[in-house]
Structures are given as C-alpha cells and as structure tokens.
From TrEMBL:
Originating species: Sterrhoptilus dennistouni
Protein's gene: Plscr2
GO molecular function: phospholipid scramblase activity
Protein purpose: May mediate accelerated ATP-independent bidirectional transbilayer migration of phospholipids upon binding calcium ions that results in a loss of phospholipid asymmetry in the plasma membrane.
Membrane topology, record value: Single-pass type II membrane protein
Main location: membrane
Name of the protein: Phospholipid scramblase
Presence of keyword Lipoprotein: yes
Cofactor or coenzyme needed: Ca(2+)
InterPro entries xrefs: Scramblase (IPR005552)
CC per GO annotation: plasma membrane
Assigned protein family: Belongs to the phospholipid scramblase family.
Pfam families associated with the record: Scramblase
Compartments, as annotated in UniProt: Membrane
Length: 250
C-alpha cells in the first residue's frame, strides 16, 4: 500500500537506526499518536486537533489508457499535507465494470503501521430515488469487525440526502447536497447538519481540480471538515459518508 513501516516490539524501548531512509519525494506520514483509552485502535489520529481531512484519489494510468475501471486508491491527509491514512478499494474487475457507480465495495483504510483501522462495506443497493425501499447504505467498522456507525441514503425527489447513524442505528447527523452536483470551476458542497437541520456541523466538499482533469479522468479531490470535539467514531463515519458520496455522485 506504500506505507512506511515503523520499528516496534524491541526490548527496553530500544529502536534500531533506520538503515534505508525514505525517498525525499515519498509521502510524509503523520506522526504516530499515543494510545487513548476507549478509542478504537488507529482512530487516535483523528483526535489530535484534527478538524479537516483531505482525500486525494490517485491517478490510474491503466484506467486512462484502456478505459476499464480499476480499483480506486486514495490518500487521506491532514491540513499540513501529512498522510493520515491510505485507502484502497477491494472489488473484482467484473463488479467494477458491470455495476459501475452502483457497485458494492469494501474499502480498507490503513495507517502508517500497516494496520487496517477502518473498513467500509457497501452492499449492492439501488442507486435511484425511484426505489425508496432499497436505497444506499454503508457500514463503517473500526477496528474491522466492530461496527461504529452507518451512512444511510434518504429518499428525496431532487436532493442527495443522507443520515449518519451510530452503531445502534440511532440518527446522529444529517447530510444534504445540492440538486446539481456537476458544476464547472467551483466546489460542490454537501452540508453536514444537526438532526433538526437548523445548524451546520461540518462539510464534505468535492474540490474543483481543473478542466483537463475533470474531463479526461475520474480522479477527484475531496475535503471533510468537522468539529474538533466531535466523537472520534463519528469522524470515522463521516469519512465513510464521503466515500459513499464519491461513489454515487462523482
């Protein structure tokens, strides 16, 4: 996955010197945070005064040349440009190219120790508002196998709307997007709101990347902003909401 492994498990706290320095043009990882009680392992990164995550989809040359959909890969960075996580889609070629944007997927998110800290699972569901009984749903697990929340699509004739839920499927936050998600030369914003939809809590934004990249590739950049004091599990679910929005709208 391109992560830099860290030496661990040496007696007496001894850490051997690094024999091979990482290349200067390689990714700079966010420093490993200390463990925090009652925090899922790996989510400590989201508690260190982080109120913004930037997601950069990696360019796949094979997809550009052949036109076949390849597994998507993403870098998740903080506002300083340090890589926080790396995400990779786990689907087969037939599913990607036959089901398109409606395809089921598993996205595995790893930290700089190579641990899978967040797993996003999206089953095969309808992608049209004409079928309100079978709309999209995404499950967020952290660590893998332990559900921390869900992202559920809500029926609306015009607007893309979603609800963020906790592990017991209790509603926590709402997400509302614009009627038209394709805009030229400007960002597209999905507002994260309180349950009564009267106050803004955060935002998920699709960043404008330029005319050439928008027309000839499907690589996009996204930003997620949330309050620093938001529960770390809900921050992870907001990351999952961004990936669901990416798959449905872009």
């Amino acid at each position: 996955y391109g992560f830099q492994g860290q030496p661990m498990g040496f007696p007496g706290g001894f850490v051997p010197p690094v024999q091979h320095q990482p290349p200067m043009n390689g990714p700079i990882w966010m420093p490993i945070p200390p463990s925090i009680p009652n925090c899922p392992p790996g989510l400590e990164y989201l508690t260190q005064q982080i109120d913004q995550i930037l997601i950069h989809q990696q360019l796949e040359l094979l997809e550009i040349v052949t036109g076949f959909e390849t597994s998507n890969k993403y870098e998740l960075k903080n506002s300083l440009g340090q890589r926080v996580y790396f995400a990779a889609e786990d689907t087969d070629c037939l599913t990607r190219n036959c089901c398109g944007p409606a395809r089921p997927f598993t996205i595995r998110i790893i930290d700089n120790l190579g641990r899978e800290v967040i797993t996003l699972q999206r089953p095969l569901r309808c992608a049209s508002c004409c079928c309100p009984c079978c709309l999209q749903e995404l499950e967020v697990q952290s660590p893998p196998g332990t559900t921390v929340g869900y992202v559920v699509q809500n029926w609306h004739p015009c607007l893309p709307k979603f609800t963020i839920q906790d592990e017991k499927k209790n509603d926590v936050l709402k997400i509302a997007g614009p009627c038209i998600v394709c805009r030229c030369c400007e960002d597209v914003n999905f507002e994260v709101q309180s349950l009564d939809e009267t106050s803004a809590v955060g935002r998920i934004s699709k960043k404008w990347t330029g005319l050439v990249q928008e027309m000839f590739t499907d690589t996009d950049n996204f930003g997620i902003s949330f309050p620093m004091d938001l529960d770390v599990k809900m921050k992870a679910v907001m990351i999952g909401a961004c990936f669901l929005i990416v798959s449905l709208s872009f």
